[in-house]
TrEMBL record:
The chain crosses the membrane at residues 6-21, 33-55, 67-88, 100-120, 132-150, 162-181, 187-206. GO terms for molecular function: metallopeptidase activity. Involved in the degradation of specific anti-sigma factors. GO terms for biological process: proteolysis. It is a multi-pass membrane protein. This is Protease PrsW. Keywords: Cell membrane, Hydrolase, Membrane, Metalloprotease, Protease, Transmembrane, Transmembrane helix. NCBIfam families: intramemb_PrsW. It is found in: Cell membrane.
Length: 231
């Protein structure tokens, strides 16, 4: 039992550590990161209940609705809701890169509990495959969500556009991931390039968020400089 729990949570903690340590300015308080990780973990239970009710009451559904609505929309909306209402307006969210830390934290909390349940049901031999696919994909959905939330918070007039993208793009990517699983018998063949693309996109967003944070701190430092005289 202990081995399954450790195998289930280790990939999530490793990925979260990676994205956390990429924060080059004013690292986030570990207590807040842990809090959002736990919120993400707890999300598994209401989402599983809602998905069960939908499958019971509605019955047979198309692969498209299962992938994009039952999974993509439900899971990404609730993760987005947690990040937006617990962190986005909080004082600790003080640079664009913070969105990536908290987006990854909530997503990996969710993915870790989901992963533990799966390993209990199917066996420890699936641990590596789960780490490479579902856990990694959840992390990257969270990274992309967090990038747009971070961009939105510090973009002024266009905030609404970026906040909408922070929800819609992860829903689309998550739905696409599950649609491949639900519709293709030999799903591994298209999944490999999809995951390569997802990692590429996620790391691009990490790099862009770091650049935005650098500009944010440079502008704040310039604004506060005692050597800048007021006119």
């Amino acid at each position: 039992m202990l081995g399954i729990v450790a195998a289930g949570i280790a990939p999530g903690l490793a990925l979260l550590s990676y994205f956390y340590l990429r924060d080059q300015y004013d690292s986030e308080p570990l207590s807040m990161v842990f809090k959002t990780f736990i919120f993400g973990a707890l999300l598994v239970f209401p989402i599983m209940f809602v998905q069960y009710v939908i499958s019971t009451e509605i019955g047979s559904q198309s692969e498209f609705s299962q992938a994009f609505l039952n999974v993509g929309l439900l899971e990404e909306f609730f993760k987005w809701f947690i990040v937006y209402y617990t962190v986005f307006k909080h004082v600790v969210f003080d640079e664009p890169y913070d969105g990536i830390v908290y987006g990854a934290s909530v997503s990996l909390g969710f993915a870790s509990v989901e992963n533990i349940f799966y390993l209990f049901s199917n066996g420890l031999e699936f641990a590596l495959g789960r780490a490479l696919l579902p856990v990694s994909s959840h992390a990257l959905f969270g990274v992309i969500m967090g990038y747009y939330l971070g961009k939105g918070k510090f973009s002024g007039d266009s905030q609404l556009k970026w906040i909408l993208l922070s929800l819609m793009i992860p829903i689309f990517l998550h739905g696409s991931y599950d649609y491949i699983l639900f519709t293709l018998e030999n799903w591994l063949t298209p999944m490999i390039p999809f995951m390569v693309f997802l990692w590429w996109l996620g790391l691009v967003k990490v790099k862009k968020a770091r650049v935005l944070s650098t500009k944010h701190f440079e502008n704040n430092t310039l604004f506060k400089s005692p050597f800048i005289s007021e006119k």
